[in-house]
Design brief:
Length: 187
């Protein structure tokens, strides 16, 4: 039996779900972002108890098939951008379609209808969040970040970053350095 869990987008969320399942004695085959494959079907009472446990962590056990598919799309994007070493070389539309075994036109239409934004904008938002994270770590330069996230050029990354955040990547990085200096001076 597959269970789909909304807002399960980090390793910390996975640990919360794992702990909840273990406390309830529920055995599972796999535990992925947004999805758990339990070995035995759960009773209505067990589902209600699990739903209550997960709410403590702001996680929601989902019922609706469309909502489940939207969460799957979001989880694939989050996993693709934040938890893989390199983004896929193929078009994101082909990647999502293949990964979810659904027609991309259907996925795209459903996602836009339910969330009010496109899959493309959702991917861009997460890529920009990843750029911010990498800039703050200060381990990679802009050229390396651009390559890692499959941007066609540093200029393309910079333009998209500015469009989303209102700042250039360089200015964003300076703000971080300025902030840490101010905090040190306040000590």
């Amino acid at each position: 039996m597959k269970l789909y869990i909304k807002y399960m987008v980090s390793l910390r969320c996975k640990m919360a779900v794992k702990t909840s399942l273990e406390e309830m004695g529920i055995k599972y085959r796999s535990l992925e972002l947004g999805e758990v494959d339990v070995i035995e079907d759960l009773s209505t009472e067990e589902l209600a108890a699990l739903r209550k446990k997960l709410l403590v962590f702001s996680l929601v056990l989902m019922d609706d098939k469309k909502s489940m598919l939207i969460e799957k799309i979001k989880n694939v994007v989050v996993e693709m951008v934040h938890y893989s070493d390199h983004l896929p070389e193929i078009n994101y539309s082909d990647f999502l379609s293949k990964k979810l075994q659904q027609d991309y036109t259907y996925l795209s239409g459903l996602f836009s209808e339910v969330t009010g934004t496109t899959i493309e904008h959702f991917i861009i938002a997460h890529k920009i969040e990843k750029v911010k994270e990498l800039l703050l770590y200060d381990e990679l330069n802009l050229t390396e970040i651009s390559y890692k996230l499959n941007y066609s050029s540093v200029a393309h990354l910079s333009n998209q970053f500015k469009k989303v955040t209102g700042l250039t990547p360089t200015y964003f990085k300076k703000l971080k350095q300025h902030r840490s200096r101010i905090q040190l001076e306040d000590l």
